[in-house]
Amino acid sequence: MTTAKAQPERPAPVRRAGGAHQKLLAFASLIVLVIGFSIASQRFFQIDNILSILQAASVNGVLAVGVTLIIITGGIDLSIGTMMTFCAVITGVVLTWMGAPLLVGVLTAIATGAACGLLSGTLVTKARIPPFIATLGLMLVLKGLSLIVTGTKPIYFNDTPGYTEISTGSLVGLVMPQFPLPNGVLVLFLVAAIVGWILTRTVLGRYTFALGSNEEAVRLSGVNTDRWKIAIYALAGAICGIAGLLISSRLNSAQPALGLGYELEAIAAVVIGGTSLSGGRGTILGTLIGALIMAVLTNGLRVLSVAPEWQTVVTGVIIIVAVYADQLRRRKAA
Amino acid sequence: MTTAKAQPERPAPVRRAGGAHQKLLAFASLIVLVIGFSIASQRFFQIDNILSILQAASVNGVLAVGVTLIIITGGIDLSIGTMMTFCAVITGVVLTWMGAPLLVGVLTAIATGAACGLLSGTLVTKARIPPFIATLGLMLVLKGLSLIVTGTKPIYFNDTPGYTEISTGSLVGLVMPQFPLPNGVLVLFLVAAIVGWILTRTVLGRYTFALGSNEEAVRLSGVNTDRWKIAIYALAGAICGIAGLLISSRLNSAQPALGLGYELEAIAAVVIGGTSLSGGRGTILGTLIGALIMAVLTNGLRVLSVAPEWQTVVTGVIIIVAVYADQLRRRKAA
Amino acid sequence: MTELVRMEGIEKRFPGVHALKSVSFDLRAGEVHALMGENGAGKSTLMKVLSGVYQPDAGRILVDGREVTLPGPAAAQAQGIGIIHQELALMRDLTVGQNIWIGREPRLSFGRIDEARLNADAQALLARLNLNIDPRTPVGGLTIARQQMVEIAKALSYRSRVLIMDEPTAALNDAEIAELFRIIAALKAEGVGIIYISHKMDEIKRISDRVTVMRDGALVDTVPAADTPISRIIAMMVGRALADEAVVIPDLSAANPALEVRGLWRGQELRDISFSLKKGEILGFAGLMGAGRTELARAIFGAEPCDKGEILVAGLPVSIRSPSDAVRAGIGYLSEDRKQFGLALGMDVRANIAMASLPRFASRIGAIDEDALGDIASDYIAKLSIRTPGDRQEVRLLSGGNQQKVVIAKWLLRDCDILIFDEPTRGIDVGAKAEIYRLLNDLAAKGKAVIVISSELPEVLRLAHRIAVMCEGRLTGILPGGAAQEQIMELATKREGVAA
Amino acid sequence: DEVYIPLVSKGFQHQFWQAVKQGADKAGAEFGVKVSFDGPDNETQVDKQIDMLSAALANNPAAIGIAALDSQAVIPLLKKAQEAGIPVVAFDSGVDSDIPVTTATTDNKAAAALAADKMGELLGGEGKVAVIGHSQTSLTGIDRRDGFVNELAAKFPKIEIVAVEYGDGDHLKSTEITKAILAANPDIKGIFGTNEGSAIGVVNGVREMGAKVTIVGFDSGKAQKDAIREGLMAGAITQNPVGIGYETVKAALAASKGEALPKIIDTGFYWYDATNIDDPTISAVLYD
Ligand SMILES: Nc1ncnc2c1ncn2[C@@H]1O[C@H](COP(=O)(O)OP(=O)(O)OP(=O)(O)O)[C@@H](O)[C@H]1O
Ligand SMILES: Nc1ncnc2c1ncn2[C@@H]1O[C@H](COP(=O)(O)OP(=O)(O)OP(=O)(O)O)[C@@H](O)[C@H]1O
Ligand SMILES: [Mg+2]
Ligand SMILES: [Mg+2]
User: Fold this and answer.
1) Per-domain residue ranges for chain B?
2) How sure is the predictor about C145, in pLDDT bands with cuts at 50, 70 and 90?
3) What is d(CA D196, CA D190) in angstroms, rounded to the nearest whole number?
4) Measured between CB atoms, does A151 come within 8 Å of chain D?
5) Is A20-30+42-329 CATH 3.90.660?
């Protein structure tokens, strides 16, 4: 806060948004990591490798953006990983088994995710099941259903021309051949931009923060909290559907066993990005940075050919250090 | 609860502790499950199988009891699974590689866990890293270290006679040969009883709840909240050490690659048992019931030879339904 | 005057508590109807029924003569009923403007919020209350008084025909109360009916037209305010008359100093504060909102760091870097914000009373002597007449005033040599207030040193042996007890660089 | 500059993959090339493996070894490698493409069929049998399950498969599964565990239940070897993981020099039991 003398007319710089240099500082850990790896290996900072990193961040990034919404409401979603897979599987059924056109497949993925989100949102609000349990249950159900639907075998998209382009093609590359940014990364940035816009500019976004801040107060203000919460879960589910498209397009197949463990990685990206698990605060930019930090870290250690067991150790240490540094920065800023 | 006519002088029966029939009702889901499976298959309700279920609940149960403490403070511990493994590995080093006597090994396991808990507690309090990140980092670090220390090979306890007895022997069986309750289960009950006592009867326990309820209010009451919180993490770590003993004794080896995923299962048991992830409330009895529900569910579905993919689906559904039923009961009681 | 609302035979039971016993109540257009009663009498519960938060077990509610059901807050709003809750219901992570307009955001296309209009509208509302708060400030950073003002602004924004104010002034000082009353007068003129709950007796006389008194969940009577003396209302509330005592200033010339503060600085909030406090003395702190009294108390208590300065306890310098240091040095601090800083709401009365003194009830291995604890808790429940079904009731289920008593009990039990009480009687009824004043005097008589920070000048005048006055982070003067109000106000507004 | 050959495997924590790594390291030391070995945590993480592959390619290696988790998903990256002139050697299981210059593998189906033959003989051609798989979806998991089940069905019609469960190769989980199966089918005669963790789980479960069951395992490791010596386990199939690792690096090096290679390098599999466990040929392909 400012001093008591502060004139009321000019607001104190709002804490949440932060100034431009504040925003830059949020990137500090990421930048330090990139510079560090670039010094350690000339192979690291090559266009190709940077594109791989972005590509690697895309699926986790999209999942993390979706779950950011839920975490800001003070909830948690453990089902996002298997939900992503389930959406991919249903898309595979529609495209490969039923031979529907590409666009229908894309819409199916998103609709499937939204429907799953609707379900978990309803369980959380109407049946008052804690989000952890509701989404844990859904995680298991969707995991099983994916295996059942596919008969435990991957569904390949070989008969849908252009399917792999969703993730691995490059619209940017058509314009700038020297920088063939994969479409998957484009999708990530697009999803992040839209969700960021929703969060900061729309009523839905406002209620997302409000619910996480004090749900009872929102309810007492006459807002139909259940309906909005369900909407948020459904939106997050739709985003999982997009992640399902990305991963299956990248693998040119819906892998039914995939997905478990992805929720933890996505939640980690969100929390590394500064969003609080107790709800009420968080930014999409932070989540993006969190996802990028994780992708840079994994890729960088691999490019350095660090032994896998040491990769794990170093990743753990760096995650802690990065968040600690960020913590210090925030404390200083406050 | 009683009727509203109760005179203010004599307090209404306290809700937290609950009457005897309240406590019984907490078992309702578990009992329904057991009865259901017993009807579905005569193989289910056999002494041998019941003992298997209890045995299967023991490692997860001990972990869950430990993490209950942390969850009540409003924290979370993702490192418990790999911490358990790490403790087992260090015990293996001390017993098998260094040839120490059994008791030293037992103490080593507990001390290693306590030290790890001390570390994560310090990160959470002194460095103010959110518990999710601090323990995620520790999870990765310990996972890597276990592989590094062992050279990714299991350490066997063949040279420590009696090591497998810790978990699979039966002291009860010596007295009651027809009911050879494995020691591992005994350890679970013992740990649960002690931690339950600590939670409800001691200063540490009272502060555990208070920290989860309103940490700032506790701090402003002149309590050294950091110190108590570190103590709680250390205690939870020590309990992980006991879980490490149980699992390695059962497998007669410290398996360095094991452990990931056990944290989720333990946390699930805690939440199924009615402990709130936002802290401030929870019971060890609930956690025990949660762990048993999970063990009964997995065993029962297997005994019924349900196809594995359907097992997952049914487990998910039943977890949701069980918690929903419990929710209804509580709402009615309130 | 036309009748806006009528409640008939309202019943409400909670586990262990019969909160409302066939209560009837009515409100007319353009009147201020005061609702009075001891802590836990059922005032807030009745109003929660009227605002759709609670469903009555029996009884009818009529709005404009038509029977209505109010299944939720939205339904009550639709009937034109607005409420300022006693327990603030704000979203700490949202800004002031966002809080005010929650649920009614001005929208643009695509569900976008017109943030500029939202802030402008909020600014206008705040200006109406003469309040200098930027609508873009996050609410979590505001003092409790300012949060209360935001809550009032929010309630006004609904333009309700029926406005319920549940202890709106508990956290406010005179200047802000004056602003509120100005608004109330304007609303009255517009024909709005206002239900007003307060424990500040003087306010009742100032603004209300009728007074309804409740006791133990039942209606006592509804009387016109103009021709009912305060003493009669108090008698209706507590069932007996209360004597009005004046401060007695003891001779402390021989007493040893208990606490000395020398040259305390913290940014712009605390500037060069020095004072001393003797054993057996009650030092009152007066000042306008934001004068820095709370800041000073928190700094002394180690809840917040200070830049420089020295603190001496019983003549010896002490280093206080955290509240636990302070408590060890014998300093206790009762915060002005019980919900955020004072109570573990989800825990029972017993645990909260014991929160600062637990080790005293523990064996060497840390086992708590529950019997001893229960006895002590019951003692305090009786001594402070805390209305609760027992010491095992969760504190969040108590009425606001009774919650405050629990915090007081916590510090009384801790038995510190130096006690800093920040707004100790917030939300406490007249009877209990007198009881607490007596307790504070007893403490002082036993040689404890007490600081009382209060925004209620009469309270400071009634209690303090000396009165310290702050303005904008500076200590502008220390007056003898019983000083004239004008003198205090002069020091409280003595800005730096402005000749007094 | 040192010749660099990265191997992207299906895992690295399990004994099997450690043995492959051991062989690769041995070849690396022998031929003086730098070898790295990486793999995801479990065999479902197809996309993680692709990220690993692209990190490996970023280092511009002389050649690359890949044990693909999905036979198609890696193809785009392998094409990229081909364009960059980096030869690819597949190991453990093949890829649906002719890009790999060779594949160093064993036939998991045939190996599991041999386990079935042994099980059938040991049971005298009749009785109830269960399978504890290590994965319902990975190629090795499917091949070993199907190889075993199909062979039993074809050769021993009187043997009934009563349960097929999956323990993710987790020792403890496999133990619990075994116990549940034993509880449900007290008359079970034989159990097959499809990898080390599964097999050890079966041994543990049978031991804890005190049952008398013919156990056939897969892979090796100290615990399995001990169980065979003790007579708890009838025997097990072992592949030659060390050989796979060695041959992969050797072939990759040869490919980087443009030498011609056979399409398949079969490293074989063996049945071992108490009778031949100490034979030099067998003990050479076993690991602890
Ligand atoms: N949700 C609840 N559960 C149980 N008891 C409750 C609940 N809400 C209120 N009570 C009890 O009902 C009684 C009336 O409470 P209420 O809040 O209406 O009092 P009040 O008159 O507003 O008191 P105060 O002046 O302290 O605000 C109190 O004894 C309180 O403890
Ligand atoms: N105009 C203002 N805008 C925002 N914050 C303010 C303003 N004026 C004062 N404050 C804040 O109020 C705090 C000082 O108020 P403090 O609570 O210590 O005063 P007080 O004398 O106890 O008054 P109160 O009656 O509000 O409790 C400081 O944190 C200061 O930053
Ligand atoms: Mg009230
Ligand atoms: Mg104050």
Assistant:
1) 20-30+42-329
2) confident
3) 17
4) no
5) no
